[in-house]
Amino acid sequence: xxxxxxxxxxxxxxxxxxxxxxxxxxxxxxxxxxxxxxxxxxxxxxxxxxxxxxxxxxxxxxxxxxxxxxxxxxxxxxxxxxxxxxxxxxxxxxxxxxxxxxxxxxxxxxxxxxxxxxxxxxxxxxxxxxxxxxxxxxxxxxxxxxxxxxxxxxxxxxxxxxxxxxxxxxxxxxxxxxxxxxxxxxxxxxxxxxxxxxxxxxxxxxxxxxxxxxxxxxxxxxxxxxxxxxxxxxxxxxxxxxxxxxxxxxxxxxxxxxxxxxxxxxxxxxxxxxxxxxxxxxxxxxxxxxxxxxxxxxxxxxxxxxxxxxxxxxxxxxxxxxxxxxxxx
Length: 329
Description:
This protein is an alpha/beta fold. The chain is 47% helix and 19% strand. The protein contains 13 helices and ten strands. The chain has helices at 2-20, 37-52, 71-77, 109-116, 121-130, 171-179, 192-198, 208-213, 239-243, 247-281, 291-300, 302-311, 318-328; strands at 24-29, 55-60, 82-86, 135-150, 165-168, 183-186, 203-207, 222-225, 230-238, 285-288. Strands 1, 2, 3, 4, 5, 6, 7, 8, 9 and 10 form a ten-stranded mixed beta sheet that branches. The longest helix is centred in the last third of the chain and has 35 residues, at 247-281. The radius of gyration is 22 Å and the shape is globular. The N and C termini lie far apart (77 Å). 42% of the residues are buried. The model is unreliable at 1-21 (pLDDT under 50).
């Protein structure tokens, strides 16, 4: 009898020890390929989290699990612990989140860095709005300025948008295309290659790093460097799941987030430069706008900012306040 009791006690001890040291799993969904700079940045995050804690990070890239527009719901509902989503995907219920998509508002790298910095006034407002979806923003992943893709010629004036079907990836970007006479078509990043290949759209918006990671030179031949908006992705985590973690695990994720965010932001200029080089080497023509051409675009699309302010509380509302903050950066 004593031997049996000792065996039972030993089994219980082993089970308890196994449970105590069991790994916590953190799955992250990403719509881009792992070789993209956002994928490589997630590997930095994974490495930093795992060396600081018992959390095992698993990355599911190339929209294996969810497309970009599905990520907010998937993470917010707890179907997956974390995910990478375009900032604009959270604008459905909180339109103020589309601040960075407003035409030519964040027109320098310095303004972008200040606006997206952890703890900035803009981040506090936007991250608070996003939290209403049941997610916590871990960090922003820089993706660079928005460019235009086309065939045959660059898109250097509002007239070049007239009646063109334009791939967009957010409502405010759609309003930008519409203000120039274009016909916006919402298409996720993982589906744009086929859209260009099949002629579903005539032109499209993306970041130049996406041209490289998705080999879009195979289906489009011209880049126009408009930089008409700043493209930001977010790494978000389910708030309820995050709150179940112990203090050490939370600290590990927070520290890893700061390291990964700085790494991708600091590398953005080189990432874009290398992407333009790759595009040219693969036969693409790169067109840069003159100051006069930028001014013409800015004037034609100014109505987009007016409408943003109107639908976010009007004069004195949250959108108006955010635009004022951005203009002062």
